[in-house]
Amino acid sequence: YINMGGKIFNRGEVTINKINMNNAGIIYNRGTLNVSDILYLSNSTTQVINEGNLNAKNLRVQGDSHFYNIGTTVIEEETRIDCNNPTWRNDGQYTTGTYHLSSYATDIINNCHLSVKGTTYLVSEGHFKMDANSSLETKNLEVQHTMVYLGEHSIIKVSNEAKMYSSVSDKGYIESVAQDADKPAVFTAKSVVSGCSPNQGYVINYKGNLVVAADSHFDNGYSGSYPFINIIGNVKFAQSATSAN
């Protein structure tokens, strides 16, 4: 337990069962930190900065706490972010079993490579941002109300199924913020399906200099004047999951 502003600075190797940071504190890891159970952050003045190797079974970001990865992080089971104003930033290599964002957070940024072995759940009204040239590889993806922003030449690669169920016009975006049309972001999946009820408008909003590449994609249509797929800007559709340049 790290309480009352306690600090740990590791340049060697630490192996521990569980870390609970429930009243401020800092962990700065430049060596190897192994947590066999959960690394739990639960206070707005709590920070974990990893510049080395961090291995844990689960990571929970609560209480508007702050997590920064500049090195290599491996979370065996679940990364869960479910508070309103946390920080989660990846500037290195981050691997997790599942990734679950269910908060109003706006400071969730993947600047490098994020690998999710199972499902990535972006089911909030927050923001998930990806910098230029960054990548998210995941088996499955679910998007509901989250604003997903992609920089130029960034890519989301879904090896199996992407499920969309936003159902509102001003939320649930996969948006490329790339300014150069020759450097679009890419969203690719084996299949893109609707999780909404039949004839529901605004299942997903695609926007900007974006290429959507899928082996199968649910059909567009209208619920009254509301499209199932809302297309804004220079959005292009490739013929298959592997045919985008």
Radius of gyration: 19 Å
Output the number of helix runs: 0
**β-sheet strand percentage:** over 45%
Shape: elongated
Distance between the termini: 50 Å
Brief account:
The protein is mainly beta.
General description of the model:
The protein has 245 residues and is mainly beta. Helix content is 0%, strand content 62%. The chain is built from no helices and 26 strands. The strands form 3 sheets. Strands 1, 3, 4, 6, 8, 10, 12, 14, 16, 18, 20, 22 and 26 form a 13-stranded parallel sheet that branches. The chain is elongated. 41% of the residues are buried.
Furnish the topology, listing elements before pairings.
Elements: E1 2-3, E2 7-10, E3 13-16, E4 19-23, E5 25-29, E6 32-42, E7 46-50, E8 53-62, E9 66-69, E10 72-81, E11 87-90, E12 93-101, E13 107-110, E14 113-122, E15 127-130, E16 135-143, E17 147-150, E18 155-164, E19 173-176, E20 185-194, E21 204-207, E22 210-217, E23 222-223, E24 226-227, E25 229-232, E26 235-238
Parallel strand pairs: 1-4, 2-5, 3-6, 4-6, 5-7, 6-8, 7-9, 8-10, 9-11, 10-12, 11-13, 12-14, 13-15, 14-16, 15-17, 16-18, 17-19, 18-20, 19-21, 20-22, 21-25, 22-26
Antiparallel strand pairs: 23-24
